[in-house]
Design brief:
136 residues, mainly beta, Immunoglobulin-like, 3-stranded antiparallel β-sheet
């Protein structure tokens, strides 16, 4: 990929890079006589974004307790640091990225929705698709 900027520029913005892929950059100067030798490569940089939307969680209910499990999120170039389980806005539980299961106790009777989000250094994913549960 090559990007050209004006003579007074000291930076450039590149688009189309893939999150999670490391890149190194070199710079050359160009004038009417020709091009300079390339600079030494930069340190590697890796673009990142918030985690991608997660798949629908699996939920089992026993009395007023729900056991929620999920598959890992796509990190998008920055490691996932934690997951948050949301039960109809009445309960939420955040756990470290090493966990794939949460037990949520004390859920009120009735119908509820369960979603999961993932967080990394860049931000938080959109909520997963909803899993509907009924607590009796």
């Amino acid at each position: 990929m090559t990007t050209t900027v004006g003579a007074g520029s000291t930076s450039a913005t590149l688009s189309g890079l893939s999150n999670g892929t490391p890149y190194r950059f070199v710079v050359t100067a160009v004038n009417a006589i020709g091009s300079s030798p390339a600079s030494a490569p930069s340190n590697a940089v890796t673009p990142a974004a918030a985690p991608g939307r997660m798949a629908r969680p699996t939920v089992s209910v026993r009395r007023t307790t729900a056991t929620v499990t999920w598959r890992p999120a796509v990190a998008n170039g920055s490691p996932v640091t934690g997951y948050t389980v949301l039960v109809s806005g009445e309960r939420s539980r955040t756990v470290p990225a090493t966990k794939r299961k949460v037990v949520v106790k004390g859920i009120s009777r009735g119908r509820h929705t369960v979603r999961v989000t993932a967080t990394n250094a860049v931000g938080t994913s959109p909520p997963s698709a909803v899993t509907k549960i009924r607590v009796r």
